[in-house]
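User: Predict the structure for this protein chain, please.
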Amino acid sequence: MSKTWEQLQELQPVVLKMFKNSILKERLAHAYLFEGMKGTGKREASILLAKSILCLSPDNGYIPCESCVNCKRINKGNHPDVHMIEPDGLSIKKAQIQLLQEEFSKTGVESKKKIYMIVHADRMTVNAANSLLKFLEEPHPHTIAILMTEQLQQILPTILSRCQAISFHALSPNQMIDKLLSSGVDTHLAPILAQLTNNLDEALEYSRNDWFVQAQKIVLKLYEVIKKNPLEAMVTLQDDWFYHFKEKEQINQGLDLLLLIFKDLLYIQLGKQEQIVYQGEKVRLEQFALQSSSKSLSEQMAAIFEAKRKLQANMNPQLLMEQLVLKLQEGSSFV
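Assistant: Here is the predicted structure, written as structure tokens:
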């Protein structure tokens, strides 16, 4: 979804100020590298910059009007002088870069400038990266490259040295909470979402998702039965958890939600009630916190982190969760 200048300025004020100065002073670099976590607005910023450069009547000389033919075509992804490359499968292939080079050897179809964007530039094959390097070393006049990555360390140093790197910073949890609340998200839900993602659009999607609402209930129920007896905890895994958390990403999210409960218990013990995220469960959590030691909570959190690591290593999810529940039960009766 395309974002306006004002919307992106709220998320990335430093980046937008740099855009403004570069455009007004006509000092645009021939190659940029946008780096930062998922959800920080890199793709939206690249599209916005393209519109700012090609807009037929920009406001104040730098803000795209959003209504001219160039702005509209860029938003629809069909401007002939703006090209976006994304991984073909798991990687960006040499053939994709060569096709781009052929396209850019021609003069601009409708404008003086040509802009290309490479999403997940860290996923270029070695051959693709070397092919792009030649392109960056001898840039065509009036050509602007925008590379994007969440893995800066995976970019070849030779490519890095030929780009102006721009860092996109994630919203702080408090900023995220404010934005979620202003979007109408429930006051009890906003702090949880702010801990799970830095992506505002993703957080808003979760807030409207029945699956996510149910996930929280199952995770809280699992925590409660863990404090009771092994049989009941295993029954809850079979009847509720495995039925609801099926995909790897869903299981990981379930583990994140579980981890937040233990973090809240630790915050309560440290007298930092204002930092707990399960605000709607505050009274119950304060009771649970009295029944746990900080040492056992730390060990239980370590067990969840280990389960997340094993999940990424493709361990059998059922075995993984059964082992985790047993480990969490070991520490659940510490006083």
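Residues 299 and 331 are 7 Å apart (CA to CA).
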